[in-house]
Amino acid sequence: MQLLYGTAWKEDDTKRLVSLALEAGFRGIDTANQRKHYHEAQVGQALQAARIPRDDLFIQTKFTFRAGQDERLPYDPKAKIAVQVEQSCHSSLEHLGLTRLDSYVLHGPSTGSGWRAEDEEAWSAMEALHQAGRVAALGVSNVSLDQLQALFARATVKPSHLQNRCYARTGWDAEVRAFCRANHVRYQGFSLLTANPRVLESADLRAMAKRVGRTPAQVLFRFACDVGMLPLTGTTDPRHMKEDLALDFTLTPAELRQLDRRW
Questions:
Q1: Which residues are CB-contacts of 193 (< 8 A; sequence separation ≥ 6)?
Q2: Average pLDDT, the chain
């Protein structure tokens, strides 16, 4: 699996677009039980319609704290956080038509800095879901290096996946990626294209694209895979879906070094 298909901000077009992504060859799907930005139930409808063998799929969804939700909550906001996690996971399994998740992600800590009691409670509840066999692996999203280190110091079940918005200006989240490499965590990078228009438009990237006969976006995804990322794409264009998976070309070590820096 080279890329994940991201399902945020697709609203009532989610089922159609996920179906197109599956037809194009995507087998990893990322979503969240956060109706504010995702339509998880339509992801499930697309999965059921596709009838792809379950073992061929990687399905990842998320628990989102109240501050990241709108009024369409998948849990009782008055319940303890551990109960909210349980309710949200149960709702996700129903939405997706599944009995287990491949990855269950904490959709960002409760605050922008630090690792607090609320985060501890949510993670412990996620660990219980993992131990019960309802979740194969755990992950965390939208975290700083300090928050990731705090989670690792406290967690019984360590995260297997980390998902961050990936900016070229930070060396593609260089410090967090280094921690992930050292601790066997799969780094998932999102907004690789939308967050980095200057890189896509650069002469360096365009020269690489011309050399290999591909688009600048394909070169950026190839680079991300080669440096150990699992990139996400949320394209709504069927042609781009197929292009994003057509990464059967090679970048030179010099080209990788040229890209893997702070822009």
A1: 200, 217, 220, 233
A2: 98
